[in-house]
């Protein structure tokens, strides 16, 4: 499963006002489980660790909020191994 999200570009400058830059990241998740794993649970996992999820249905106000958040908060790209 490939889930797009926005993370903080690694060479951003958190000390500078507006110095943070967002980047589009794609989290690839492969699972092997003896229990049921639901796609919405994996999506929720990514959303909790990203600056912002990528949804095409955002309102204009939501888009402005996301843009502001991307330039003012830090969330680096991350990796996760689930077994």
Order of helices and strands: EEHEH
For the biggest β-sheet, the strand order reads 2-1-3
Contiguous runs where pLDDT drops below 50 for at least 5 residues: none
Q: First CA to last CA: what distance? A: 15 Å
Multimer state: single chain
- The overall average pLDDT, rounded, is 78
Please explain how this structure is put together.
13% of the residues are buried. The chain is elongated, with a radius of gyration of 14 Å. The chain has 83 residues and is an alpha+beta fold. The protein has helices at 39-49, 60-70; strands at residues 2-8, 22-28, 52-53. Strands 2-1-3 form a three-stranded antiparallel beta sheet. The chain is built from two helices and three strands, in the order E-E-H-E-H. 27% of the residues lie in helices and 19% in strands.
Throw out a few tags for this protein.
elongated; 83 residues; alpha+beta
Question: Any chance you could write out the topology, listing elements then pairs?
Answer:
Elements: E1 2-8, E2 22-28, H1 39-49, E3 52-53, H2 60-70
Antiparallel strand pairs: 1-2, 1-3
């Amino acid at each position: 499963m490939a889930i797009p999200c926005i993370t903080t570009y690694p060479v951003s400058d958190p000390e500078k006002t507006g110095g943070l830059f967002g980047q589009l990241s794609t989290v690839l998740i492969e699972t092997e489980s003896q229990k049921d794993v639901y796609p919405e649970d994996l999506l929720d996992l990514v959303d909790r660790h990203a600056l912002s999820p990528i949804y095409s249905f955002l309102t204009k106000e939501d888009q402005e909020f996301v843009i502001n958040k991307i330039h003012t908060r830090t969330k680096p790209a991350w990796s996760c191994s689930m077994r």
